[in-house]
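Sorry to interrupt, but I need a hand with the structure work. It will help me judge whether the discrete encoding reads sensibly. Write everything out right here, beneath this request:
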Amino acid sequence: MQGAQATTKEQAQATGTDFDVIVVGAGISGLSAAWHLRHRLPDTRFAVLEREASFGGTWLTHSFPGIRSDSDLYTFGFHFKPWVGPPIATAAEIQAYLGEMIDENDLAGHIRFGHAIETADWDPARQVWTLVARLADGSQRQYTANFLWMCQGYYRHRQGHWPSWPGMADFAGKLLHTEEWDPATDYAGKNVAVIGSGATAATVIPEMAKTAAHVTMVQRSPTYFFPASNVDETAELLRPLDIDPAWTHEIVRRKKNYDQALLTRRCIEEPDTVKAELLGAVQALLPEGYDMRHFTPAYPPWKQRLAFVPDGDLFAGIRAGKADVVTGEIARFTPEGLAMADGTQVPADIIVLATGFNLCVLGDILFSIAGAPINLADTVTYRGMMFTGVPNMIWVFGYFRASWTLRSDLISQFVCRLLPHMKARGATSIVPVLRPEDAGMPLSPFFDLEDFNPHYIVRGQHALPKSGPKPEWRHTQDYWRERDELPNVALDGPEFQYGHRATPAVAAE
């Protein structure tokens, strides 16, 4: 990691602004893209432009107490760099892992920090994207690239979703959001109310309960929790055998993916059985007689993401009397805390909103073609990674029912197959187009909300591209299908239209 940080000055002084490929974002998806370009297409001129002052994305910007992954690092980590720590890792551990990867693969010189891209315009004649980036010092810099690889994530960093309740201004204590965490917050010996019940709440509550007087999770409705040991038995079995760490990593990674596929299938085929198993695992970790309505969702498993609880630490706080749960509607904030609609009072010195984030589509960049604005809601997605009518752009939007990185790696492999194919054809652009047989195809929202409906998707669905009923025009959440389909996509299929840079006219003598 030292080398990755030490090169920041040299990067700031770099003057090159014309590239074959520009990757937007230096989080885990952008670093996957950079690794694949570096190793699979070593002659490609590329740069990674990152808004923040360092790499890591979520693991850099999130600073609330206890921040950790909610996916195992065997599948959330890279396939090419073995993970040797516990399955669920802290932000610091993930940052160290990413920093090592940057150093080991000489990627630091390709990354330019402090670049917030404001506009991106496609020039059909020159076949290039022109990007305008706002630098940390307030100045602007212009870049051009033939191909854009959007790895900027899917929510607005440092800006949480703030629901509105009556009386919020009346609260006399400290009110803050986990996405906008103030590191100076002192909660030792205080009564804390955490509003929310997802993975963030399950992360922050056990950590705060260590020193707070008491922490109350206030939820409108329950979430499915999946408590398990933060030790992988397969990895622990293989490590003492002096096996190559890469082999151990691959074996555990494959087993994790197998187990995840099995769980997903069971959630679909036998939801009542899986629900009973999940609730039974939680009940076993709670005090005898604890009201299970606080942990019994009204929807079937996998309608929203399961929240993993390593070593059951959330429930340990409840057993110790350091935490509890209140379920219901918040009627209003009071000077002393929260008043629930059923009359329950929740005293609080600090109220923490763990109420999610706001969807951010393509980094809120203003995109255009020949100066005409692009409205992504008017496009149809090609396999959740390209847009009809938009040339030379790949978008990484990962999985929710499997680790995000699994899809970013599949997309990286696709791009590193696509770019040489374009070169072999002599093409300088590719754009997805609806085929004649797609005429009149019924269009639907990007996500099927009957199948998967987290609140930020519901709120932001209007800004996303449309989907069609055919596999080419959908973003599937099925990694196990895509790992077979994407490597075999026919790049000369009728859903792709290739273009060429205009030949300059020769003046007549």
In short: Residues 1-15, 505-509 have pLDDT under 50 and may be disordered.
